[in-house]
Amino acid sequence: MDVRTFFFIILSSFILLLSCYAAKPSLETKVALLNQASSQNLGVVELDSNLYDEFVAKPRNYSMAILLTALDPQINCIPCKEFDPEFRLVASSWLKSGNEPSRLYFGVLDFKNGREIYTKLGLNNAPTLFYFSPSTGPYAKDVSEPYKYEFNKYGFSAEAFASYLSGVLGTPVPVNRPLNYFAILLTVFLILGALAFIKLMYPLIETVVRNKNTWAAISLASVYDFFAKTMCEKFYVTLRENNNHFKLCCPKDRTDSAIPYCAV
Ligand SMILES: *[C@@H]1O[C@H](CO)[C@@H](O)[C@H](O)[C@H]1NC(C)=O
């Protein structure tokens, strides 16, 4: 063997070794990447086909919930759009919860970045959510296949998803829904507006309440209503007895109404 062949063999082995290393990052590398990506992106790791393969590959000492979605407007996946903010809410709540971050990661693989994975898994609907249990470490579970989150069974809300995760993870997964300041402000404004209106109209309201005629009108209305009901019942019966001889009538379902008549 000449020197050139020797160097060639050494060099190719080295390249082979490097590529193996690049294709299969160690657990430490994966955890470091996941920590970095999720802390920079409110708890969500954006994936493509390669990253998906890397992070779900064993060994994993972490759990990972991966949402396979399709947010492209052309695909128009309405449940995808509905669930996306809920998924991200659970992810950011987990990030801020003070739990050990490497216990659970949240990944998103959009169809446009992950066609290969969709094809490989034979997926033809979105959203699809997989939960991967750890394969090693203190929380390892002896399951080879990921769990599939059943949207129809559990629902699309962050709370539903978080309670599912709490169950499979064995640790509470919180949801910290941010306050809707706009709704609060609107309510306060409406209440203040109503109070201001009552204050403005108070003299008028007072006059109406104090007026004898108002009370007279209310009494008359009650008396009228009482007779109306009685008459209504009576005429309804009469109508039936006399075989449509009377023009007055009262529909069966309106015998308790103050309007006793209807045209036949
Ligand atoms: C998983 O492994 C990484 C790297 O060894 C370590 O930093 C991390 O704390 C481990 N996580 C768990 C949940 O054991």
UniProtKB/TrEMBL annotation:
<comment type="function">
    <text>Subunit of the oligosaccharyl transferase (OST) complex that catalyzes the initial transfer of a defined glycan (Glc(3)Man(9)GlcNAc(2) in eukaryotes) from the lipid carrier dolichol-pyrophosphate to an asparagine residue within an Asn-X-Ser/Thr consensus motif in nascent polypeptide chains, the first step in protein N-glycosylation. N-glycosylation occurs cotranslationally and the complex associates with the Sec61 complex at the channel-forming translocon complex that mediates protein translocation across the endoplasmic reticulum (ER). All subunits are required for a maximal enzyme activity.</text>
</comment>
<dbReference type="GO" id="GO:0008250">
    <property type="term" value="C:oligosaccharyltransferase complex"/>
</dbReference>
<dbReference type="InterPro" id="IPR021149">
    <property type="entry name" value="OligosaccharylTrfase_OST3/OST6"/>
</dbReference>
<keyword id="KW-0732">Signal</keyword>
<comment type="similarity">
    <text>Belongs to the OST3/OST6 family.</text>
</comment>
<feature type="transmembrane region" description="Helical">
    <location>
        <begin position="181"/>
        <end position="202"/>
    </location>
</feature>
<dbReference type="InterPro" id="IPR036249">
    <property type="entry name" value="Thioredoxin-like_sf"/>
</dbReference>
<dbReference type="Pfam" id="PF04756">
    <property type="entry name" value="OST3_OST6"/>
</dbReference>
<dbReference type="GO" id="GO:0018279">
    <property type="term" value="P:protein N-linked glycosylation via asparagine"/>
</dbReference>
<feature type="signal peptide">
    <location>
        <begin position="1"/>
        <end position="22"/>
    </location>
</feature>
<keyword id="KW-0472">Membrane</keyword>
<keyword id="KW-1133">Transmembrane helix</keyword>
<protein>
    <submittedName>
        <fullName>10084_t:CDS:1</fullName>
    </submittedName>
</protein>
<keyword id="KW-0256">Endoplasmic reticulum</keyword>
<keyword id="KW-0812">Transmembrane</keyword>
